[in-house]
Design a protein that fits this description.
By secondary structure, the chain is an alpha/beta fold. The protein has 17 helices and 20 strands. Among the domains are: about 200 residues, FAD/NAD(P)-binding domain, CATH 3.50.50.60; about 110 residues, no CATH class. The strands form five sheets. Strands 1, 2, 11, 12, 13, 14 and 20 form a seven-stranded mixed beta sheet that branches. Strands 7-6-16-17-18-15-19 form a seven-stranded mixed beta sheet, sandwiched between helices. A two-stranded antiparallel ribbon has the order 3-4.
């Protein structure tokens, strides 16, 4: 069988890339190892009658251009906004963040912080607005050779410079701080009260195996404010039917455009001839030929397992091997007989639609990270609880509910040679007990649970080290250096082999941006007959 493009991995970025390529008339085949497309953006029944977004679990970063270009609403996607953004249970009190409520809430803890809140939002939004544009740009690539090779990359740098030049001096100083500082240092410079710093600081450790005081975590915070829901910037929402609804809408778009999607087909090898990708061999021995191959896999899975080392430059292969992953994530889905009742806010309300953050301060988050590094998991963990069935009654039987528990910090690899297979239930019990301390009766309401350790996330979804971002969002693994300097433009050292996953710019989250950008570069090469 021969086609124009073989796409390895039917995650959301792979589907996005395939849809854009097929729209130009290219013949595209997507090969997905699992029996369902979507990668980590899937909805599955984990207990009879109870469905949930198994891995990724909330919507904000999905790019508006991708939504529009793939006509996802026409293909069945509906996203609803949370009624309240975040809810933070405290000892004897609580703190809520949401449209029209945040300033009054902050003022209960600090009048000074409430007065600074508007300026903080404006200055962060100014940076986010510029970087939203950069999300859909191909980074300038470091190349070897003369002026002819370097000129296109210099032009990209000039365009980027003009965009960043729109920021005033204050904005440029903020940008430098956000790329270099810790989230804790950034927030300590703005606020004095712990609850607001905890809510904002949580964004600095989501999917980031680090303390909020680790340098660079301020960028992770910024990464999580790029998004929007239904045109409202910074909002978070829920896809009706779960995150799998996004992937299924993308798959429907792909099929309408003529893409062949094959599930249950794993790739064993990327075929090369004279240093050029020519197709793949599946684990069943089927040979599929193509003009080019695009990978949606984690970079280390692609180059460490599928590509012949002989066609990889030695320094490139060495740096890919050193690429850092591991987000410190333990993921749970639970079926509930009833909604939780929080001691500090026992009545039902909008707070149950929010991201419920069990982590009262930056200091608590810092201790959680330090404990995980020495013990293997934090014995006082960070847990975000989301109850999507409060917004979507299709996920659970009437009167019952499902909840997502996004838990941190846990070590990607346990110290002392222990296996996550032996510790899964112990840690799952701890996570349930952590919520129970704030919502007595929660443990009793759990009908069933699904627990995914970092090892489970790697085995099931190909998330190396359980890393939901396909690699840490550190300065040496961002933009032109993601995944490796010199391969930041979605091309690889192997001609005709491209990457479109979250291990490329702009990184992790359900964005579709890497798939969008990679498709553009593939099409440029096709038009110029470079593949």
């Amino acid at each position: 069988m021969t086609c124009d493009v073989i796409l390895i991995g039917g995650g959301h970025n792979g589907l996005t890339c395939a849809a854009y390529l097929a729209a130009t008339g290219l013949k595209v085949t997507v090969l997905e190892r699992r029996e369902v497309v979507g990668g980590a953006a899937v909805t599955e029944e984990f207990h009879p009658g109870f469905r949930n977004s198994v891995a990724s679990y909330t919507v904000s970063l999905l790019n508006p251009k991708v939504i529009a270009d793939l006509e996802l609403p026409r293909h069945g996607l509906t996203v609803v906004e949370r009624k309240l953004a975040n809810f933070l249970p405290l000892d004897g009190d609580c703190f809520s963040v949401g449209e029209g409520r945040t300033k009054a809430e902050v003022a209960r803890f600090s009048t000074r912080d409430a007065e600074r809140l508007e300026a903080y939002g404006q200055r962060l939004d100014a940076i986010a607005d510029v970087l939203r544009e950069v999300v859909l740009e191909t980074p300038p690539n470091l190349v070897e050779g003369g002026l002819a090779q370097a000129l296109p990359e210099l032009l990209k740098s000039a365009v980027l410079g003009r965009r960043l030049g729109r920021l005033d001096l204050t904005g440029k100083r903020d940008l430098l701080a956000l790329f270099s500082q810790s989230a804790g240092d950034w927030l300590d410079g703005w606020f004095e009260s712990e609850p607001i710093k905890a809510v904002y600081g949580f964004d600095g450790v989501v999917g980031n195996y680090a303390s909020p005081y680790t340098p660079g975590s301020a960028y992770v915070l910024l990464h999580h404010v790029f998004g929007e829901v239904n045109g409202r910037k910074g909002a978070w929402g829920h896809a009706i039917g779960g995150m799998g609804a996004i992937s299924q809408a993308m798959a429907a778009c792909c099929r309408e455009r003529g893409v062949t999607i094959r599930t249950g087909v794993a790739v064993a090898e990327v075929l090369t001839a004279k240093g050029r990708a020519t197709g793949v061999v599946t684990t069943d021995g089927e040979v599929l030929k193509a003009r080019c191959v695009v990978s949606n896999l984690h970079p280390q899975l692609l180059f460490g397992k599928l590509v012949d080392p002989a066609v990889q430059p030695a320094d490139f292969a060495e740096r890919i091997a050193r690429y850092k992953s591991g987000s410190g994530t333990f993921r749970m889905n639970v079926a509930l007989s009833e909604l939780p009742t929080f001691t500090v806010k026992p009545e039902p309300g909008d707070h149950l639609t929010a991201g419920i953050i069990v982590a009262p301060s930056l200091a608590y988050m810092d201790r959680a990270h330090m404990d995980a590094r020495t013990h293997g998991w934090s014995r006082e963990p960070i847990v975000e609880v989301l109850i999507p069935s409060t917004l979507d009654d299709s996920l659970a039987p009437s009167g019952q509910h499902v909840a997502s528990l996004f838990c941190q910090h846990v070590a990607p690899e346990l110290p002392g040679g222990r296996s996550w297979d032996d510790c899964r239930d112990e840690v799952a019990d701890l996570m349930i007990a952590t919520v129970e301390r704030h919502a007595p009766g929660f443990a009793k309401s759990v009908i069933a649970r699904q627990a995914l350790t970092p090892l489970d996330l790697e085995r099931t979804f190909g998330l190396v080290g359980g890393d939901i971002m396909h690699g840490r969002l550190t300065l040496d693994q961002l933009f032109s250096a993601r995944p490796v300097l010199g391969a930041g433009d979605y091309r690889t050292p192997v001609k005709g082999l491209y990457q479109c996953g979250a291990g490329t710019h702009p990184g992790g989250g359900v964005t579709g941006a890497p798939g969008h950008n990679a498709a553009r570069e593939v099409l440029r090469d096709v038009r110029r007959r470079r593949v």
